[in-house]
């Protein structure tokens, strides 16, 4: 923003927060339109990025552009998706916490492309090694595979994602991409068997038919003509000019190989895809009694072969249903209509489960093998709000998802903004906004919500129909202000509703919804490896009541919400400028609707919250210091005092700005613009003064003046660079001298001359040792020879490592022998000690030798907001210290230590309880330590308090200060998470430790 404020009159405002009429929707649209017509498709609302699909190629995504945005202040350059990606990445590395980017918008707004651009940026910007490049390639190539199987041409978008996707990208402490994980939501399986006019089935079907090798097609029994397959021609647009199926096929085949799909997996996978096409061509006829019959035609032969199911079993499953009556099983024949329905249901089930298998297979390939702590950036590419002429069950689920995400969006936005104001000591002004919790409750409330009513209707005796479900909703929720049916509506609204429909008043507008497993046993007989995996024989039958699809979707959304709540949010809001996908066309009505349902105006009001601009003192002072004689050219005091002197000189009134703890807040854009204009004038004056000073004699003319001035400036610059180079060389000489002196005195007692050299020796030995550890107990004599200073430590590490290898051996012996070994091991923490000694201790032990007793890196959680902070925990003989770099943040005398709480989970959390009598004193410490057992052992030794450690389960209380309490809730779960719950408690999720 700062670098481009001068362009605001030509290209609009780059950050909507600086819009004077920030409450006006028309002013918002005018600014968006102005920038769109100048091919400026990105605009900020604070750190939220608004992206408008240009429907044409723009030269703004090159490697050069990526390099430009790497490591640059977020607002220093014009808005770009690379700026957002870089800022998220650098924030993650500096704060050592997890983040997610929510990408939302209508179909065709550019969500999938935005997700690709972010992935590509991380692929280029992350550190590069052979291993990391391998992971990077798999992350990138997972996209075309998922697009092939999960995307399709729709009326609104030629490459529309027909499923929701959340991808975690895992990074190590240096920023290298080391793994990933994908979650998928609500695949549109109905597309497999039916497409509207102008739409296509999933891309993979057309790619296989058009691009598959001749030998492969012969093996699959397919012809190179999409018109021959019923499931591919219902939309009457098998060929699309913007899609190259042959080229995409080659990309998918290459991607499958890179992601490490075996040839057998690929063979079975495409066998399933081909079987679905053959299944769609199976025809049924009615016999004399009206029952469905199926001749042994060619299509049945291919389905049987590709799925590995006997033709007779498959035919019976498609034309009969099995009825169990006490101890007997009776086959009841289908009518033709029911047989077609069963065939289509089978095709959808096969494809849906195969898609889930595919996602799991990709996750296996992306899995990070290193168990040490990783940081995560999540990418959530989710369907946008959908309103069609006919809205079915799938639209209901999609719109419910958007309601939940909107609720989360407003909640997190309000929270983050309010937290910043409180942290800076600025009074928070409440912002009016529509709270859509009332709509979410309408859908998901227990016992009364639409989902609960749907579950009840599926359970009730007798035949459940759309009308009985509608009657139940009218009875239970008929008085809800956001629910309307034909029976409940007034005379005018009744004309727009069919008798079987119901209408929900969503936050984004009104939507009218239409009226809303015998084949499993057949599929379990399959010889196809993937089908056998997708339809396991151990799967329980349908005698037990299964969850409805919408209930499963609700549960997955709850899980997704928990994941997102544990991470820091960032947002990309994608907007579709017109329905015709034409470049340069901006449809005001369409864009206005999207601005409304994406909640952009609410976000702008929350973000503005009385102040248009906020920047750290250092950044503000660095830019505008030429405007004040006291601060130019250099300010020697604190940045805050410099800003205070600067704004006083500029004549800011008291109601125009506020001074926070680390930032200045400016209320009105006009105040900032006036300051920026003065800065631009000042720059020209400075340039003129420089030129005037070195202009030379009048007789030389303008050219000579400019040349002499340029030469003088060049000399000054070269002099500055030479001085810096001299300082750098002087530093290098000093280091080399110190190293040589340290080498010469290495065998003497530790002193100033050899302390740094000995530190290097320790670290170097531990690094080499980690890379050359013996592989088995038989190789224990091949232990790396230590330098003299590390001899004692080396012996200790060798014993620990041998014990670890013995434990590893014990784990692999027979169960009978293992039972004897188990009796000698108390608890899983014994194993943790050895594991630490093997990996973690070797990599960090070098630090321990430089501290009085013991030192370990920890993550400290703030007592109020639970924000994670990187600290060092140091134990001495008298006290424990919490240190940030060279600054002591807190001292804990052992006499004031009341106890230590840990959980029975693998979460590495410990809480140091201290006596807290004075309100000025800091309270208990909430820490997370990767080397927990070692830290606790050392604490017991130096404090001589062997019984101070208490293992807690559930919730534990800690003191924030006298009279104020906080709580940490420990929960068991498969995925380790740390987040602040809605009740204000810190929630820690981890796996339970095993006992031996």
From TrEMBL:
<dbReference type="InterPro" id="IPR036961">
    <property type="entry name" value="Kinesin_motor_dom_sf"/>
</dbReference>
<dbReference type="GO" id="GO:0005902">
    <property type="term" value="C:microvillus"/>
</dbReference>
<feature type="domain" description="TH1">
    <location>
        <begin position="807"/>
        <end position="992"/>
    </location>
</feature>
<dbReference type="Pfam" id="PF06017">
    <property type="entry name" value="Myosin_TH1"/>
</dbReference>
<dbReference type="InterPro" id="IPR010926">
    <property type="entry name" value="Myosin_TH1"/>
</dbReference>
<dbReference type="GO" id="GO:0006897">
    <property type="term" value="P:endocytosis"/>
</dbReference>
<keyword id="KW-0009">Actin-binding</keyword>
<comment type="similarity">
    <text>Belongs to the TRAFAC class myosin-kinesin ATPase superfamily. Myosin family.</text>
</comment>
<feature type="binding site">
    <location>
        <begin position="105"/>
        <end position="112"/>
    </location>
    <ligand>
        <name>ATP</name>
    </ligand>
</feature>
<dbReference type="GO" id="GO:0005938">
    <property type="term" value="C:cell cortex"/>
</dbReference>
<dbReference type="GO" id="GO:0051015">
    <property type="term" value="F:actin filament binding"/>
</dbReference>
<dbReference type="GO" id="GO:0005886">
    <property type="term" value="C:plasma membrane"/>
</dbReference>
<dbReference type="GO" id="GO:0000146">
    <property type="term" value="F:microfilament motor activity"/>
</dbReference>
<protein>
    <submittedName>
        <fullName>Unconventional myosin-Ih-like</fullName>
    </submittedName>
</protein>
<dbReference type="GO" id="GO:0005524">
    <property type="term" value="F:ATP binding"/>
</dbReference>
<dbReference type="InterPro" id="IPR001609">
    <property type="entry name" value="Myosin_head_motor_dom-like"/>
</dbReference>
<dbReference type="GO" id="GO:0007015">
    <property type="term" value="P:actin filament organization"/>
</dbReference>
<dbReference type="Pfam" id="PF00063">
    <property type="entry name" value="Myosin_head"/>
</dbReference>
<feature type="region of interest" description="Actin-binding">
    <location>
        <begin position="557"/>
        <end position="579"/>
    </location>
</feature>
<dbReference type="InterPro" id="IPR027417">
    <property type="entry name" value="P-loop_NTPase"/>
</dbReference>
<keyword id="KW-0505">Motor protein</keyword>
<feature type="domain" description="Myosin motor">
    <location>
        <begin position="12"/>
        <end position="680"/>
    </location>
</feature>
<keyword id="KW-0677">Repeat</keyword>
<dbReference type="GO" id="GO:0030048">
    <property type="term" value="P:actin filament-based movement"/>
</dbReference>
<keyword id="KW-0518">Myosin</keyword>
<dbReference type="InterPro" id="IPR036072">
    <property type="entry name" value="MYSc_Myo1"/>
</dbReference>
<dbReference type="GO" id="GO:0016459">
    <property type="term" value="C:myosin complex"/>
</dbReference>
<keyword id="KW-0067">ATP-binding</keyword>
<keyword id="KW-0547">Nucleotide-binding</keyword>
